[in-house]
Amino acid sequence: MTNSAEPAGGYDLAVVGAGPAGLAAAATAAEHGLRVVLLDSAPRPGGQFYRQPAAELRAARPQALHHHWPAFQRLLGRVDAAAERVTSLGDHHVWSVTGESGAFTVRALTGPDQRQARSVTARQVLFATGAHERQLPFPGWTLPGVVGAGGAQAMLKAGLVLPGRRVVVAGSGPLLLAVASSLAAAGARVPLVAEAADYLGYAAGARVLAANPGKLVEGAQHGAVLLRHGVRLRPRTAVVAAHGSDRVEAVTLARLDAAWRPVPGTEWRVACDAVAVGHGLVPQLELPLELGCRTRRLPDGSAALVVDAAQRTTVPGVWAAGESTGIGGVQLAVAEGELAGRAVAGQTAAPRPLLRRRARLRAFADLMAARHAPGSGWTGWLDDATEVCRCEEVTVREVRSAVAELGAADQRTVKLLTRAGMGWCQARMCGPAVARLCGAPSADGPDVPGPDVAVAGQDDGAPTRPLSTPVPLGLLAECDTTAPSSEGAPR
Amino acid sequence: MVVIGAGMIGAACADALATRGMRVAVVDRGPVVGGTTGAGEGNLLVSDKAPGPELELAVESLRLWGELAGELGARALEYEPKGGLVVARDQRAFAELRASAELQRAAGVTAVDVPADGLREWEPHLAPGLAGGVHYPQDAQVQPALAAAALLRRARATGRVDLLTATAVTGLAKGRVETDAHGTLHCGAVVNAAGTWGGEVAALAGATLPVLPRRGFVLVTEPLPPLVRHKVYAADYVADVASGSADLQSSAVVEGTAAGPVLIGASRERVGFDRSLSAPVLARLAAQAAELFPVLRDVRVLRAYRGFRPYLPDHLPAIGPDPDRPWLLHACGHEGAGIGLAPATARLIAQLLDGEKPFMDPAAFGPGRFEKEES
Ligand SMILES: Cc1cc2nc3c(=O)[nH]c(=O)nc-3n(C[C@H](O)[C@H](O)[C@H](O)COP(=O)(O)OP(=O)(O)OC[C@H]3O[C@@H](n4cnc5c(N)ncnc54)[C@H](O)[C@@H]3O)c2cc1C
Ligand SMILES: Cc1cc2nc3c(=O)[nH]c(=O)nc-3n(C[C@H](O)[C@H](O)[C@H](O)COP(=O)(O)OP(=O)(O)OC[C@H]3O[C@@H](n4cnc5c(N)ncnc54)[C@H](O)[C@@H]3O)c2cc1C
Fold first, then answer.
1. What's this model's pTM, rounded to 2 decimal places?
2. CATH number, domain containing residue B21
3. DSSP B356
């Protein structure tokens, strides 16, 4: 990791996020001569997918947990080769990006406990901040042993630890297969994978599937691993409750109808000591939203950044690549990173094959998002006492009463009336569920603030967060470069 | 009656009118408390007001808030009559502060001078070296969204109040309110409680009311054990409120909340409806809070939020009938005090509509006062 001083006049480009998209963008931009700073909150580059075991674990074969490992090595190699033009700042959690084209200030926290401040300036900025997992609550989901599917995978990749010995994998989306196969390969017993959607739905997208043989091979690989370990895949099935006293001991599963409503009488119980559950990914957008970038609604109800053919957002000087522009997998993230890196460097003509590749992968991503979009019937497995917001301990009953009695119809209003989403995680966990419980049209995301909405005062619309991570007050105070002193009132 | 706006002011008006037996429709283009009410703090202050009509309104309003807390339950409103402590950094500021407290006392405010060596008894974590302070036991707080919701709930429980959310008012004329979602509403009178957008609503009736937005940020820390007992702020805050300057002014009011987080607010700037994050403003708030309470330095700020206060050029609200349209009553433009002033505002509106003698002379709040200035 390099740590050269900031060039006079700042960097040409700051890339936030060193996952596949950010790495590809940084490498490409540097290869075209730009001075790039690449920041990531994780200590080592790689992002969600190429999450590396901590160095001190001395994993003998980290690649055993990854597909596409050679591709990752190539990306890292390119960044290394351009080392004199790329400053990699690991363990730097960016909490704010402000400014405008030509002069952005990127502020990050680093060091033990994230209590040191570091800021860099750059002429342009690229967001490759990825996504976080969507969670839908069910009775018992707060029991120890119930973990996020992506989290379980990350734990496995980063720390080589399993969440339990007998792990039920549940939720929706193609990641479940990847997670289950990694868990099984690492020695966990996976009694079944409960997928809420119906895989038959894929048939409707046969053309798109046929155009993406790589994706099918990937799925088939997971399938083969699962088969070898005796893991059954149950479509149209969900964990509707977890049981246990100190820790999860069993789950109740149920069949779902097409709208994800549990079918009465179909419940059965399965013993387990962990549940890895996730309902797809939601783009992580707080930093670009603060800069005013516009979003679009994805087929599964979440919001993603609007970008043009060159990966430019709607705000001058601001670019985006990877999952922040829509969930699409590693290959799409890399393709977008490449295109963005070239465009930022002023290369207007992009190679045709790369453009075609992006289009093909995006079509596949949209198909996936549509197939795995949470059905409205999922609320059928909640009971009134189920906690929706774990940080503030807000129950389904409280949310429903805000909706019924006061006509709360969006996440922000529910938050104001119940505190759901006001706690530590700032609604990252409960947001999608709350939005769906109050029937908000914008299920997971910011209300796309058109001029009118902004005027109507969507001031703290749940997913816009002026601080993307908690900042010690003393450090925040130090950002005040304009104040002459703390004496007297600034006039 | 039609009340336009389901914020704090609209909620208080709906409750006051329904209690008097009137039938009310509350119309809001967004959800309830979706405007400034959901984006501000809930300080109920007399301490920051100089003697005059606003202080008179505030004293009555805080008394009414105490009554409401008795009727609706303090918990439902998160009502806390915790008192305020205004501190002075140096002797000169302390002298000014004492002098203004003297005038406030004459206007019915309870204010107790606190010498430098007494400050820590009131607030153990205050920074050393302050010159002194004044304690205002009447200052209190509510959680604005919950308070407005509680008033709307009570109003609706009378069976006389309809709540029409997601319904924008698109036209206004005597006896008629045009909406986009519910067609034409027929009514005897209209209350314009549209806050920062009160000027736009007035314009629908052909009236002018120069309401403008004044941006404010608030910082929210992680939940903490009780550290700050009162509402604490430095004396220059009082000067900020009355300032006519468009530049940033801020003097942090620091307060603990029932739920644990400490709130630090609020800056005041006139930048139109610009929602962008202003790092220097947040930094300034943080610096001022840390200066008053050094222990906060290591505390993490979880989030920041912003809102747009509705202000009128003379920093007083508009309360009362439109000069040329007696059927249209304005109740907007409360700037940074709309939560505090809501119950008394609603009382005035209800008295005016009922033809009752108002509890105070509302002339200073007359919506026609800006027209006169111009002509
Ligand atoms: C469990 C799991 C299994 C998967 N399996 C597959 C698979 O088999 N095939 C496939 O194609 N895809 C798979 N994916 C998807 C794949 O991981 C993503 O498509 C890919 O990682 C997206 O790349 P990205 O660069 O957009 O984002 P990410 O890889 O998510 O990288 C984003 C980076 O940004 C950083 N970041 C975010 N916010 C900040 C901030 N404020 N400050 C600093 N840094 C920040 C994060 O730390 C992270 O490193 C899987 C994902 C998961 C979670
Ligand atoms: C950061 C900050 C801190 C603050 N701190 C305090 C404090 O500590 N104490 C205090 O007393 N005050 C405080 N305030 C001020 C207080 O929040 C406001 O004065 C108060 O909320 C105004 O309430 P309102 O009901 O008039 O307006 P709002 O709550 O804004 O309600 C107006 C409503 O009218 C609706 N509307 C607008 N146009 C139309 C239309 N055409 N059709 C239908 N509906 C429409 C809007 O959607 C909105 O819901 C603070 C404000 C800010 C921004």
1. 0.84
2. 3.50.50.60
3. P
**CA torsion angle for A364, A370, A372, A378 (degrees, to 10)?**
170
Nearest by CB to residue A406, choosing from B32, B247, B304, is B32
Q: H helices within chain B, ranges in order?
A: 8-19, 53-72, 74-77, 91-106, 119-122, 144-157, 198-204, 236-242, 279-292, 338-354, 369-374
Q: Is residue B234 located within the same domain as residue B278?
A: yes
What does the alpha-carbon distance between residue A406 and residue A161 come to, in Å, rounded to a whole number? 46
Q: Which two structure tokens, joined as six digits, stand for A479?
A: 């950002």
Residue A82: strand, helix, or coil: coil
Q: Are residues B206 and B216 located together in one domain of the fold?
A: no
Q: Is B33 within 8 Å of A416 when comparing Cβ atoms? A: yes
Looking at the complex, report in whole angstroms how far the Cα of residue A289 sits from the nearest Cα belonging to chain B.
Answer: 9
What HEC string does A28-60 produce? HHHHCCCCEEEECCCCCCCCCCCCCCCHHHCCC
Helix (H, G, I), strand (E, B) or coil at B275: coil
Q: Is residue B79 one of the residues assigned to a domain?
A: no
Amino acid letter for position B65: W
Q: Work out the widest C-alpha separation in chain B, in whole angstroms.
A: 64
- Bridge-based pairing of strands A36-39 and A11-16 is parallel
> Is the same domain home to B218 and B167?
no
Q: Which of residues 246-265 of B touch A (CB under 8 A)?
A: 247-251, 259
Cβ pair A407:B240 closer than 8 A? no
The upper half-sphere exposure of residue B296, i.e. CA atoms within 13 Å in the direction of its Cβ, equals 34
pLDDT, tens digit, 9 for 90 and up, residues A326-343: 999 899 999 999 999 999
Give tens-digit pLDDT for B44-59. Answer: 999 988 899 999 999 9
CA–CA dist A423, A465 (Å, integer):
13
d(CA A186, CA B325): 77
Q: Give the ipTM of the model, two decimals please.
A: 0.83
